[in-house]
Specification:
Layout (H helix, E strand, L loop, with lengths): L8 H17 L9 E4 L6 H10 L6 E5 L8 E5 L6 E5 L5 E5 L14 E3 L3 E2 L6 E2 L5 E3 L3 H4 L11 E2 L1 E4 L2 E4 L9 H4 L4 H6 L6 E8 L5 H6 L7 H4 L1 H4 L8 E5 L5 E7 L21 E7 L3 E5 L3 E9 L6 E9 L6 H34 L5 E4 L4 H13 L15
Antiparallel strand pairs: 1-20, 2-12, 3-4, 3-6, 4-5, 5-10, 7-8, 8-9, 11-12, 13-19, 14-15, 15-16, 16-17, 17-18, 18-19
The structure holds FE2/S2 (inorganic) cluster (FES) and fe (ii) ion.
């Protein structure tokens, strides 16, 4: 059998080695101190507006996955930020992002969530645009009057495809520097070959809460054996390996062991097989993308601010890591996805909604992240810096364990 994720073998073994060490010591990675987050960070309207601009208009976002836009002409709508973005693969195979707005009178060119076509023809007066966004035809041009068609292409947004993800900044003309944005994490991301994945399903997760409170649910495993005791009791309690990356340390990945990892303890590393089957790997791509990666599947959760500070929008997508999975494999993945969905919706998002009501009541001054929840501290330090709140005085590296 072919070894899975051969290019990340070394990184996977490093994670396994560190997890075994932590398990033997009965501990986890920690930061230096408890982090306090004022309740207002989740309630403040002005901060909310700043987040929508700084984090969702001026920061690179994963707007699609390569697996969602396989063929030339395939497209996906990305509207969760309030900007209707048309992500398209052109005839040359490049990913492009355009504002989904006709240059005549602004109508949406399409309302289909995804699809495949050679041109986008406006439903209003049939102006049509090619896959590079150029205005290809303007019906009754002689009657319409004198306009320079060359200047009336779709509004284009900076867009670049990397490691199976399509990034865009939702500000025309912005500079997107993915080399620095993803620095330190690219080898690992490349090694997963996310571009080979196949989309199996999508679903939304619902709760009434600020988007950051929902995002917090994904950043620690301290709650697994309590909130998810029925489902995740096979995980090792309070044990996780943490690594941050990116030019500002804004992204990270975590590894969470299953009890079965112990089976490797007395096996020489040269004989380790299917190492990754003994732990979960969770990536966070700042500011809003969570990817849970397993040998056979990838699940993606993307969290967005809703219409108000008290509303969020979570889009979940589930992929097979095979390029062409059989119907049987797809069904197995769908079943697994249904379990994850149920746990997240009925447990994590239920708790989140209740906690948000409590924050809204104004009775709580703050919430706390423990030393054993480093990724939460990192997340909120990065978000604070992203919105221009004074950053934490020191970068909080893992210092204990
Ligand atoms: S608004 Fe699109 S053709 Fe008129
Ligand atoms: Fe959870």
């Amino acid at each position: 059998m072919m070894m899975k994720d051969i290019e990340n073998r070394e990184a996977i073994n490093d994670m396994a080695r560190e997890l075994l060490r932590l398990m033997a010591a009965g501990t986890t990675h920690m930061v230096d101190d408890v982090r306090r987050v004022p309740a207002g960070d989740y309630l403040d309207e002005e901060r909310f507006r700043t987040e929508r601009t700084k984090l969702f208009r001026e920061t690179p976002l994963v707007v699609a996955f390569t697996a969602e836009l396989r063929e030339p002409g395939s497209f996906k709508l990305h509207e969760e930020t309030g900007v209707s973005v048309l992500v398209v693969r052109n005839e040359q195979g490049q990913a492009k992002a355009f504002v989904n707005a006709c240059r005549h009178r602004g109508a949406k060119l399409t309302e289909e969530p995804c699809g495949k076509q050679k041109r986008f023809t406006c439903p209003y007066h049939a102006w049509s645009f090619d896959l590079n966004g150029a205005l290809a035809s303007l019906p009754a041009n002689n009657l319409f009057g004198d306009v320079d068609k060359a200047t009336l292409g779709l509004v284009e947004l900076p867009c670049e495809e990397r490691h199976g993800m399509i990034f865009a900044v939702l500000t025309p003309g912005a500079v997107m520097d993915l080399d620095s944005f993803l620095s330190g994490g690219e080898d690992l991301l490349r090694g997963w070959h996310l571009e080979r994945n196949t989309l199996v399903g999508r679903r939304d997760l619902e709760t009434r809460a600020n988007w950051k409170l929902a995002l917090d649910s994904y950043c620690e495993n301290y709650h697994f054996h309590v909130l998810h005791s029925a489902d995740f009791s096979y995980k090792v309690k309070n044990c996780a390996h943490h690594v941050r990356f990116g030019d500002k340390g804004q992204h990270w990945y975590l590894a969470w062991p299953s009890k079965s990892l112990e089976e490797l303890r007395n096996v020489p590393e040269s004989e380790w097989q299917d190492v990754h089957s003994h732990f979960s790997i969770l990536h966070f791509i700042y500011p809003n993308t969570i990817m849970a990666l397993y040998p056979e599947t990838l699940s993606v959760k993307q969290l967005y601010p809703g219409a108000s500070v008290a509303e969020q929008n979570t889009k979940m997508a589930f992929f097979s890591r095979e390029a062409d999975p059989s119907e049987e494999v797809k069904q197995l993945i769908q079943n697994r996805f249904d379990v994850f969905y149920k746990v997240l919706q009925q447990e994590d998002y239920w708790v989140c909604g209740g906690a948000y009501k409590n924050l809204e009541s104004g009775m709580l001054p703050e919430i706390l992240f423990g030393r054993n929840e480093p990724a939460l501290t990192w997340l909120h330090d990065a978000l604070d810096e992203g919105v221009g709140v004074k950053p934490a005085e020191k970068v909080r590296e893992i210092i204990a364990a």
